[in-house]
Amino acid sequence: MNNFPKGFLWGGAIAANQADGAYLADGKGLTTVDLLPTGEKRWPIMDGGLQSFTPEPGEFYPSHDAIDFYHRYKEDIALFAEMGFKALRISISWARIFPNGDDEKPNEAGLQFYDQLFDELWKNGIEPIVTIAHFDVPVHLVETYGGWRNRKLVHLFETYTQTLFTRYKEKIKYWMTFNEINMLLHAPFLGAGLVFQEGENRTQIQYQAAHHQLVASALAVKACHETIPGAQIGCMLAAGTVYPYSCNPDDVFHAMEKDRESFFFIDVQSRGEYPGYAKRFFQDHQLTIEMAESDEELLKKYTVDYIGFSYYSSQVTSTDPGILKNTTGGNIFASIDNPYVEKSEWGWIIDSKGLRITANQLYDRYQKPLFVVENGLGAVDQLTPEGEIHDDYRINYLQAHIEEMAEAIKDGVDIIGYTSWGPIDIVSASTGEMKKRYGYIYVDRDNNGSGTLKRYRKKSFYWYKQVIETNGQKLDL
Is the whole model's pTM more than 0.90, yes or no? Predict the structure, then answer.
C-alpha cells in the first residue's frame, strides 16, 4: 500500500505569469514574461541575448491573456475543490504589488486581488502555497538596474516580501522564495532579468546575480519568521538527477558536477554557506563574487525550512564528444538520449524512477522536509465532439511518478505534499504554447490565442479526484 502520511498536501501548481492574463489590469506593471513572444524570438530573449523592454507590434505574447485566471479564479477554484484539492501552489506577481518594483507604496488593487484569491481558496478548503518570485521580474528593474546583477534588487525584494508577510500573515503558512532558482544559469532573462551586452563575462554576471538572490532569500526567511511565527518558508529547485552515460569514472564525475551545478543553490539556502566545490569553480574560472560584510552571517543564520522541487525528467551526460552528439534539446535541460526510458512529444525523458532517486538524493543531502511542487506531462490533448478528453497517457505518467514518490516515502524521505504542474491547462513557460497541455482541466484556447476559454474536465480529472480521496491508495484507472 502507498502509505502517504495523514495531512499530505495533494493539489496542483500554477504560476501567475502563465495563468492570470490581465497583464496590465488594475495597475499591474510589465514583467519579464510579458516580453516573451511565441516564435523564433522567444528563446533569444529568455537567454538574455536579445534586449526587449516593450512589447513589439505584430508579435503575439501569450502571457498577456493566458487563461484569464485573474477573472475566472472562482470558477477554477471550484473545479479544484471538486477534485478535493488540499493545496494550490500559486505565485504572486511582483509587478502586481509594486508595478515598477521600486515604487514607494504598494498597489492596493493588487494586494486586494490576492486577499480575495486566498479567501476563495480557504472557503473551498484549499491551503494556498505561495511562491514569491516565479519568473516575473518587473521590467522597470531590468531596464533601470540590470535585473538581479544589481544588488539594489536585494533591498527592493526585501521590501516586497515584507509587504507580503505583513499583509497575508493570517492567511499563508507555506511560502517559497524563488521558483527554480537554478534556472538563472539556463534561461537568465527568465530567471533573473539578465540581459548581456557583447563582451561581458556572462558566467560572472550569472553567479553575481545568484549571490544576490541567495542573500534576498535569506532576508526573506528572516522576515517571514519574524513576522509570521510558525510559518514555513522554503526554496525551490528545478531538479532531476543526472546519470553518467557509462561507468567511465570521467562520466561519473561529470554527472556529479552537473548535479552540483543545481545543488549549489540549495547548498547555500539549506546549509547556509558556499560549498568548497563552488569556491573552486569560482577560482578556476577567475570569478569574483562581491559580497557585503554581513552576507555570510545572513546566509548561515537564515536557512530555509523545507526544500521544494520540480521534477519532470532525469538527464544523461558524458565526456565523450561522440556520445554528446546524441544530445537532444527538447527540455531547457538538454540530455543525451536514454535508451531505457520513453520520451514525451516534446522530447522530455519520462523517468518515474528518477523521482524516487532525486527525492532520496535531496533528503540524504539536506535532511529537511521535501515538497514535490511540480511534476507533470505536457502533451497534445484531443477534445471530442462530446466535450471529452481521454488522456490515459497523462494518468499513466502521473500514476508511475506517484508510485515512485510513495517508494521514496517508504525509504524514509519526509515529503510534505505533491502539487502536480498545471492542474488546468496554462501557457507553457518554455515554448509559450497552449497545445502543450498539462492539466486535468482542458481550456479552449490555442497557440494563437483563439478560443472560448471554456473549461472541460478531462478523464484525468476524475482519476486525480480518486487519488486524493484515497490519500494515494487507489492509483489505477
Answer: yes
